[in-house]
Amino acid sequence: MTTTHGCGEALPYDVFSRSCPSREALANVTGRWGSLTLGALREDTLRFNELRRRVDGVSEKMLAQTLHALERDGLVHRKAQQSNPPRVDYCLTPLGRSVADRLLSLIELLEERMPEIDEARREYDRAKG
């Protein structure tokens, strides 16, 4: 799939196309657990339970599925160490770090602008309620 964006440059993928594989990667990154997992791993290399505590509210099953998807997309590296008990660490790959950097910029923008978002929500609720 080739599409044209912006100044006429051709890109080989088009996330707006239903059959484009970039759509699945975007969903893995921007889904609730994917974005929070990438954000947490941007801070540090973490073990599974450390990551689960950092991403408050995620179930073991959802975190495992999220990590598998992000690992498959080349964003997260899983390193199993031979020790007793076994130890598994998760960290970002260089590609994952690049994606997480951009994602964290969005997260920081939203956190900074939350007073405006809260006010917009109140106005919306007043108008609809």
Automatic annotation (TrEMBL):
Name the UniProt record assigns to this protein: Helix-turn-helix domain-containing protein
Organism of this sequence: Streptomyces orinoci
Keyword Manganese annotated: no
Ranges of residues in domain HTH hxlR-type: 20-118
Keyword Protein biosynthesis included in the entry's annotation: no
Xref: Pfam families: HxlR
Domain of life: Bacteria
Keywords carried by this UniProt record: DNA-binding, Transcription, Transcription regulation
Transmembrane segments: none
